[in-house]
Amino acid sequence: xxxxxxxxxxxxxxxxxxxxxxxxxxxxxxxxxxxxxxxxxxxxxxxxxxxxxxxxxxxxxxxxxxxxxxxxxxxxxxxxxxxxxxxxxxxxxxxxxxxxxxxxxxxxxxxxxxxxxxxxxxxxxxxxxxxxxxxxxxxxxxxxxxxxxxx
Length: 151
Hints:
Mean pLDDT: 88
Structural class: alpha+beta
CATH architecture of the domain at 25-119: 2-Layer Sandwich
Radius of gyration: 20 Å
Number of helices: 4
Shape: elongated
CATH topology of the domain at 25-119: Ribosomal Protein S5, domain 2
CATH class of the domain at 25-119: Alpha Beta
Helix content: 25-40%
Low-confidence stretches: none
Distance between the termini: 68 Å
């Protein structure tokens, strides 16, 4: 590979969005639920939330999912104080919303350790360990069995 092909800026085939470092402090955290993994970068700002480079109202269509993401901010009385950039992969829309809530809650505890006392009792810092059970060999599903034949 020629040295001219190497560049510090992201290329067109770069799969993840490139976020340049800013002068303000940026807190990052990871949240998970089932197979959904959310990576969150929070900076002080006006309350703008973007998920996969789309506004969160567009990405999460229902009010319940939008409220799930805003719940840590409402609990800590920090609405419209932080700009949030999210990259989420895997899972369904509900699992993604809970993974984002998990990551935002973790990031809020990095901002101020006092926030932990607020969001911990609400269960926002607990990673839900329930996962889909794997299919076993010799069976049609994880628990289902083929019909028993006596003869």
